[in-house]
Design a protein that fits this description.
This protein is of the alpha+beta class. Helix content is about 15%, strand content about 55%. The chain has helices spanning about 10-45, 60-65, 160-170, 310-315, 365-370, 380-385, 435-445, and strands spanning about 50-55, 70-80, 85-95, 100-110, 115-125, 130-140, 145-155, 175-190, 200-215, 220-235, 235-240, 245-250, 255-265, 270-280, 285-290, 300-310, 320-325, 325-335, 340-345, 345-350, 355-360, 390-400, 410-420, 425-435, 445-455. It has a 25-stranded antiparallel β-sheet that branches. A hairpin with a 5-residue loop joins β5 (about 115-125) and β6 (about 130-140). The longest helix has about 35 residues, at about 10-45. The radius of gyration is 37 Å and the shape is elongated.
């Protein structure tokens, strides 16, 4: 009986050999990787790295490039074994116009299914208050997190960074600029496993900002300015945080505002000021809900006025020499065109109904002398001058009305009584002045009509 020929069984044996080879290869690769990581600090520290140089001019806009003389970033790297980490990295170089130095610690740790990497660094612009702390963590699973924090830096005219940038800005007509502020910044970004895009957030804050300058012949002063700005986003979506600027004092062009505040929110193409206000002449200024387009700088707003001190307000009119009491209320529409031109709408101020006030001019002549230019009779001018020396008013109203492109009308109405010696007489005064607003308030005004009941020669 012939038996069947047996076939050699070789496939399982081949598979076993291939499996062993694969396992040995993986083990060898793991040992090689571990050895490489183990000796990486020694290898990295033994390398003499060439100086790196990057041209960033193509990444700067024309206006930004004009702020710097040097358009490159250079760096010389030195690596050594770290004390608290695997590697210590030191960098000296120049970023645009300023020398910088940086130091970093880099560490890593094997996990069962991967590698964790951690790094922290400090970067400084040498000779300036600007510095930043940077932290980075990552895992082989695809997750990472990074943060940049600039601690509070006190910046003023001695800072070479801001002074260099400001010296190259086109600040025509501005002289004697002095400033000081405390600035801080923080940013975070992270990516979680399973999410396609990283998320980020950033915030900056300015505190105790004081600025003084001369715009032509007009001194300007800002004291105690503080504000914060922030944003967060994911992919191409960005949300800008509301802003709440504050200032202790803003002075300029003969105006002085205190306790200035605003609430600002950003929209897609403009900024919405939901509310803003300040103290002025002992009263309050407020405005609500107006949009400002940064590209065109056009805006229309209405300033609401409440409780202004009549004395402080009237003293801002050239020729008013004396004292006044009472409170004024009203509104002032403003139109801003292209960020440079300011137009006034129809505005008015009126005294508190039912309350009386006083006006006592020590020298009423300069205030009423221009009435003669409109043909107001001399006896009426003299009666007004005598009345304003000691006037108790029951109604005071001031109305400003645009007439054409370059002219406005200022109407003043005054009712009350005036006492001179033992004589008290009623006073009713209604006059309208015409001209440019600057002339109306500062350089003299023309009167078109006027009437005065009271004193006679």
């Amino acid at each position: 009986m012939k038996g069947k020929e047996s076939k050699p069984i070789q496939k399982p044996r081949r598979r076993g050999v291939l499996a062993k080879i694969a396992l040995l290869s993986l083990a060898a690769a793991a040992v090689a990787a571990a050895a490489l990581l183990f000796f990486a600090p020694t290898i990295a520290a033994s390398v003499d790295y060439p100086e790196l140089s990057f041209d960033v001019s193509t990444n700067l806009s024309e206006n930004a490039a004009a702020l710097f003389t040097n358009k490159t970033v250079t760096a010389k790297i030195r690596v050594s074994r770290g004390y608290d980490a695997k590697l210590a990295v030191y960098i000296k170089g120049r970023a645009l116009d300023w020398p910088f130095s940086a130091s970093a610690n880099i560490d890593w740790e094997w996990r069962l299914f991967g590698l964790d990497l951690a790094a922290d660094a400090t970067v400084r612009l040498d000779g300036s208050p600007w510095s930043a702390q940077i932290k980075f963590n990552a895992s082989s699973g695809g997750e990472w997190r990074a943060s940049v924090e600039m601690p509070q830096a006190v910046v003023d005219g001695s800072d070479p960074v801001t002074s260099s940038v400001l010296s190259r800005l086109d600040l025509k007509g501005i002289d004697g600029l002095a400033y000081g502020a405390t600035v801080s910044f923080k940013a975070d970004a992270f990516k979680l496993s399973g999410r396609p895009c990283p998320e980020w957030s950033a915030s900056a804050r300015v505190k105790g900002c004081d600025i003084s300058l001369s715009a032509g012949e007009t001194p300007v002063k800002i004291a105690g300015l503080q504000f914060g700005a922030g944003a967060k986003g994911i992919a191409d979506h960005v949300d800008i945080s509301p802003m709440f600027p504050r200032a202790t004092l803003i002075e300029g062009a003969g105006l002085s505002l205190s306790n200035v505040f605003a609430s600002v929110r950003a929209t897609e193409a403009s900024f919405l000021v939901t509310e803003a206000g300040a103290k002025f002449c002992g009263g309050d200024l407020r405005l609500y809900s107006f949009f400002l387009n940064p590209a065109k700088l056009n805006a229309g707003l209405t300033l609401f006025i409440d409780g202004l001190d009549a004395g402080e307000t009237l003293r801002r009119i050239k020729g008013f020499n004396g004292e006044a009491s009472g409170r004024l209320h009203g509104k002032l529409p403003l139109y801003i065109r292209n960020g440079r031109e300011v137009k006034l709408g129809e505005a008015y101020l009126f005294s508190t109904p039912g309350e009386t006030g006083t006006i006592k001019l020590s020298n009423p002549g300069p205030l009423v002398e221009n009435l003669a230019l409109a043909g107001v009779q001399e006896d009426s001018r003299e009666n007004l001058a005598r009345a304003l020396a000691n006037l108790v008013y029951t109604a005071l109203s001031i109305r400003l009305t645009p007439e054409d492109k370059d002219s406005m009308a200022l109407s003043v109405k005054l009712d009350g009584s005036s006492t001179h010696g033992e004589t008290t007489v009623p006073v009713s005064f209604d006059v309208t002045f015409h001209g440019d607003i600057e002339q109306l308030l500062n350089t003299g005004i023309k009167a078109s009509t006027g009437k005065l009941k009271g004193y006679r020669k």
